[in-house]
Amino acid sequence: MRTTTVGDVKILLPDLDPEDLDRVTDLADGLTEAFVEGASWRGVQLEDHRIRSSLIAGGDLSESTWEAGSLYGCDITRTDFSGAALTGVTIERCAITGSRFTGARLTDVRLKDVLFDGCRFDYATFQRVTAVGSVAFTDCTLTHGTWSTCRLPGIALRSCDLAGLELGSCHLDGVDLRGSRLRGLKTPLDNLSGATLAENQLPDLTQMAVDALKLTVRND
């Protein structure tokens, strides 16, 4: 395992060497210490699958359905989860980079020590997604998504595009938003209690407060 730090968030991540892994193409009942490259599993239906200590690169899991099961100690790069539905899945000690979750639906997903880097979550839906450990999104596109009843305290959303993201009844106390685009973010202000911002983000926060409180600003 290796450690990476995003702001004040310290994350334990896998340190996998492809040479130490078995090359496979079939998901079977799960994967352990496997290296999968360029596999197409579009539309696959998974139930209680467990993937451990594996590296997946350039995979296609778009339109797939995954109920229960877990991802543990995995490194996933350039993989397509567009339109996928993940329900009751636990993701722990994983680095997910350059991957696409456009229109994906994550429900009752549990996150612990997870880094999403350079991923697309546009039009994605998070429902009752919970962080029980360190979680960071860096350089991700989260535009026009919907997050509802999520408990994600202390996560990092660094240098992300949040335009059109709608947060409803979410607990994000202490979220680190530095470097992220806030203009167009739709959220009750109490969802951002204790948030960390950069000074140049204050105008956008002010505009959010004006919109939320329906204030009239007049110069006369």
Question: What's the arrangement of secondary structure elements?
Answer:
Elements: E1 2-6, E2 9-13, E3 22-23, E4 30-32, E5 34-37, E6 45-47, E7 50-52, E8 55-57, E9 65-67, E10 70-72, E11 75-77, E12 85-87, E13 90-97, E14 105-107, E15 110-117, E16 125-127, E17 130-131, E18 135-138, E19 146-148, E20 156-158, E21 166-168, H1 202-212
Parallel strand pairs: 3-5, 4-7, 5-8, 6-9, 7-10, 8-11, 9-12, 10-13, 11-13, 12-14, 13-15, 14-16, 15-17, 15-18, 16-19, 18-20, 19-21
Antiparallel strand pairs: 1-2
Helix-strand sequence: EEEEEEEEEEEEEEEEEEEEEH
Give the total of beta strands: 21
Distance between the termini: 61 Å
Our estimate of the beta-strand percent is 35-45%
The CATH architecture designation is: 3 Solenoid
Share of residues in helices: under 10%
Count up the helices. 1
CATH topology: Pectate Lyase C-like
The backbone outline, from C-alpha atoms, is: elongated
Q: Please, what is the average pLDDT?
A: 92
CATH homologous superfamily placement:
E3 ubiquitin-protein ligase SopA
CATH classification, class level? Mainly Beta
Main beta-sheet annotation: 12 strands, parallel
Rg: 18 Å
Domain module count = 1
Low-confidence stretches: none
Structural class: mainly beta
